[in-house]
Design goal:
This protein has 355 residues and is an alpha/beta fold. It is built from 10 helices and 15 strands. The longest helix has 20 residues.
């Protein structure tokens, strides 16, 4: 890509903004981090230190007052602000990237999608875990038929965090859109839909396990896909012994993969995309086989493809500069929210929900 880079305004500099969005934006050819919005003085100092060429604003209003000077808005603020900020950006004539979940309901997501289409603007959702190393590897195995017909997809995003951290993600206020169902659940549901297509029924169990917790911290979701695949998805902060990240069973073979993609850890440690990015050591590779336990060395190792979070913003830049495809559309995010809303209803009413 050549020419003047697109000027990006980033709203929010908490975990999402500082660890994921700002470093990836800054590393993307064709994009330039122009402004970071945060009202927190400590975070303002951190943003200035990390990105000295970027401006810092205290409020979104300061950013939108300069809308004519910007080319893209990224919304990485608390979940309850996603819809109003995205709408304001679109109405100001600016393309938008919104961190997941784009909204609290599928209807809100579709309303935003309609507004973006009406204005002829890009509206994209940051589903970075489509570019996890293990997911890229599994997607290749499925696409190439290495597993045969997939029967069951087990996906776990589990942690051991017995102590509460506080903050809006653990708030019991429904307007905050907190809890693991909408947090990590947004990732595992999106991955299941990408791999195996639309869902016809949803069953879920959501629990509050930790003392003082106000929203779900241990959740299970069972999906039946129109393709016939069954997905069993687990998200938890209370898992004392972690299960495999993926266990996928097909008519020819199964694939088991432990551990998490290394990119989040690298970004948290202050590393930036470059040579060797997203690679993991051979001892962490998953295994594929039939009739044998991978724990005892059954099957054979499958090289894990490099994780590639930078691919998301590279695709956004192409979409804006040369008419490339939107990497994650709002309508795709709305389909995932249909599932999450059904999961919440299923857990609350103790029923299986048909979509």
């Amino acid at each position: 890509m050549t020419g003047t880079p697109l000027r990006v305004g980033l709203v929010g500099y908490g975990l999402a903004g500082s660890v994921f969005h700002a470093p990836l934006i800054a590393a993307t050819e064709g994009l330039a981090l122009d402004t970071v919005v945060t009202s927190n003085p400590e975070r303002q100092q951190q943003a200035r230190a990390a990105f000295p060429d970027a401006r810092v604003a205290a409020t979104p209003d300061e950013l939108f007052a300069r809308a004519a000077e910007l080319d893209l808005i990224v919304v990485a603020s608390p979940n309850r602000t996603h819809v109003p900020l995205a709408r304001t950006a679109l109405e100001a004539g600016l393309p938008v990237v919104v961190d997941k979940p784009i909204a609290g309901t599928a209807a809100e997501a579709r309303d935003l999608a309609a507004l973006a289409e009406e204005r002829g603007l890009l509206l994209s959702v940051f589903q970075n875990r489509r570019w996890d190393n293990d997911f890229l590897t599994l997607r290749r195995l499925v696409d190439e038929g290495e597993l045969g017909d997939v029967y069951r997809f087990e996906s776990r995003f589990e942690r051991w965090r017995p102590q509460l951290k506080g903050g809006w993600r653990e708030s019991g206020d429904p307007t905050e859109i907190g809890g693991l169902l909408y947090d990590l659940g947004s990732h595992v549901v999106d991955q299941a839909l990408v791999l195996f297509g639309p869902v016809t029924s949803v069953y879920a169990e959501t629990d509050i396990r930790r003392d003082g917790a106000l929203t779900d911290d241990d959740t299970f979701i069972a999906l039946t896909h129109a393709s016939g695949v069954r997905s069993h998805l687990y998200v938890s902060a209370t898992t004392a012994q972690l299960g495999p990240r993926f266990r996928v069973l097909g008519s020819k073979s199964g694939y088991v993969k432990h551990g998490l993609d290394p990119q989040e850890g690298a970004l948290r440690d202050g590393l930036r995309p470059g040579t060797g990015w997203g690679l993991e050591p051979e001892e962490l590779w998953g295994r594929i086989g039939a009739g044998e336990s991978p724990v005892s060395g059954g099957g054979h190792p499958v090289p894990t493809l490099p994780g590639d979070y930078p691919a998301y913003y590279a695709a956004v830049a192409r979409a804006l500069l040369s008419g490339g495809a939107n990497p994650v559309t709002a309508l795709e995010a709305a389909a995932a929210l249909d599932v999450l809303e059904a999961a919440r209803r299923s857990a609350n009413e103790k029923v299986t929900v048909t979509l």
